User: Which sequence fits this backbone?
DNA sequence: TATGGTACTAACAAATTTGTAAGTAATGGG
DNA sequence: CCCATTACTTACAAATTTGTTAGTACCATA
């Protein structure tokens, strides 16, 4: 998000992991704090910057910008700027991002199930 | 991983996001640096602490311990301690974690495809 | 001339994650 | 008693991510 150091152990490890494990690679692509929420909002079509900001409670303009930029760089969203004043910019999913949709639906179901299990195991251990 | 502050904006945001989006919730469960790699190693059965350490290049004992502890707390792995000296401990996937396997296979395929697309778009833009 | 709306950017600070280096406990074998 | 082995812990430091606050540019409208 800011610049990263070039040869920190941290970064070398990340490179190694994402190169040797496509799964880790995939999860890293969608792994920023707000990225999945943004992608979900875009599932039904284009949205403007301000629409995203208003639909995502708690996100700051800076964070929204950062995450959008990364998603764009990674080819998951397409950014369109209209030559108007005041500015208008919209964002939409790319094809490769749309291919994620069925997968993330399953993952979302898994998450819901996991959440329940964890809750019931916590309450039963009281 | 270390303790977290109780009411930082950061933490409040995370709580809000994972509560309102099961997908984000799910990804957070598997979102530490080494977690997916660990889970993948366990896909074929139990492994001891030292086996994991040896199979995962670059991980330190501290990181391995931390990630294993979190995975355990989240109910994704089961830890078994044998009353021996020197100690023997092994780790295995839980049922709910095994349910992730088909999903992560798809995600892994997606990752491989995405990697190719990104590479070709980078090289074509030179 | 001042104001407003939109989509940002910049400088900085705080929080969180990750890595380094060293140490611990328990016990069997020499 | 001393050492080796295994699975950790602890204290600390570095790196990275996230959040705060205050701007910016543009032009239309009042």
Assistant:
């Amino acid at each position: 998000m800011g610049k990263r150091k070039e040869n920190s152990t941290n970064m070398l490890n990340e490179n190694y992991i994402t190169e040797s494990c496509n799964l880790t690679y995939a999860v890293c692509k969608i792994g920023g704090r707000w990225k999945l929420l943004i992608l979900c909002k875009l599932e039904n079509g284009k949205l403007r910057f301000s629409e995203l900001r208003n639909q995502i409670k708690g996100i700051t303009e800076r964070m929204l910008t950062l995450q959008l930029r990364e998603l764009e760089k990674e080819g998951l969203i397409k950014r369109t700027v209209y030559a108007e004043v005041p500015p208008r910019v919209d964002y939409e999913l790319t094809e490769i991002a749309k291919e994620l949709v069925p997968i993330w639906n399953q993952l979302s179901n898994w998450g819901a199930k996991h959440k329940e299990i964890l809750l019931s195991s916590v309450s039963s251990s009281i």
